[in-house]
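Worked Example 4.2. Read the sequence first, then its structure tokens.
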Amino acid sequence: MDTSKLQKFDLSFPGHWIAGANRKWAFDTALILRHIENSFIEAVAAFSLFRPITKENIETFLAEWQSRSRYEGCLNGLYAKAFVYSLDAIEKLLSRLCRDLSAPASVKLLHQEYQQKFGHLKHIRDSAIHIEDRGRGINRRQSPIETNLLVLGSFIGNRFTFTGEDGKMYEIKISETPLICAHQILQGVINAYIWE
């Protein structure tokens, strides 16, 4: 994997530790920020390994399809799930930062923006994790999902799609676009703290 193209997604930390008299708070906050960075790196790595089917490569894909093993055929699904799980984990970490670690007001606003952009990933993650229920067309209360179409991890181009337990369709584009958006928000979160 050529990681040089991925460096544009590197998050920049303006110092080694967060300034403040409460050293435990500073340590705990910095630790959460490092976990956020690690989850973001995982999302970027998953994106870099994902190989979408496009108009340009459809003929090559079809020619190679019969010679591919089922193990090779499942790789895009693995990368897409890793992409979703990593971006969803970031939202959980941001929630912890805001709820338990007295985050600045600007961080709370950035968390809200992140929720607006990526909050739907919870539905994709839940459906992927609870495939035993979704595959039977039921929700967590064991009631039938009201939908005419049950989609369980299908791709439409580079869009990874699942039916949520509410019967709605949820998708994420496995591309640079959501990564650029997440990067801007997360860099803003890091920059909201005073670093030494």
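Now turn to a second chain, presented in exactly the same format:
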Amino acid sequence: MNHSVYHGSKSNGLKMINPSPSTHQVPWVYATNDPVMSAVFIGQIGGDFTLKIGRDENGMPYISERFKDALGEAYSGGGSLYELDGDDFLEGKTSWLEEVVSEKPVKVLKETAIKDMRGYLLGLAESGELKISIYPEKYMCPPDDADIVEKAVLWTQQFGPSTLENLNKYHPGLVAKVKSKLEKEIKNV
């Protein structure tokens, strides 16, 4: 075994992580090389519409709330962080550089069960392993939420109108901007 990779899941007690299709339409096991970065994806309800996740210019993982109490909504409940053998994982298969994937089922080496995801993440922030930005602070986010609008336009084109329904749950004030941008793109085709 050369190195470990990490996979976050709402499910506890897994012995194997099996490939499953996601937005990439290919069945893969998704993981990262960094346990902190994998932890932030456990149960992240609402995806990019609730939180912005990434690394800042110093390489620090961060979570930035996109609206009041998004952290509590996105990370209610628990889950597990799984350590996996990284030998069968490939880099560069997705657009996100942090992500590695395996086409094969992967045996779990170690499980860290987490009862309270929000509390776990706040503990990582307290220990200096993660930066958490609480709304209305917009750490690493544009002040006008233009990134959310762009993603909503792209995802609506790729996945259909359910994206607008999801956006409306979290950012009803941005739906008109997305619809306007979609109409402009249709006219320019």
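Notes for the reader: The chain has six helices and ten strands. Helices lie at 35-39, 70-74, 117-126, 146-159, 162-170, 175-187.
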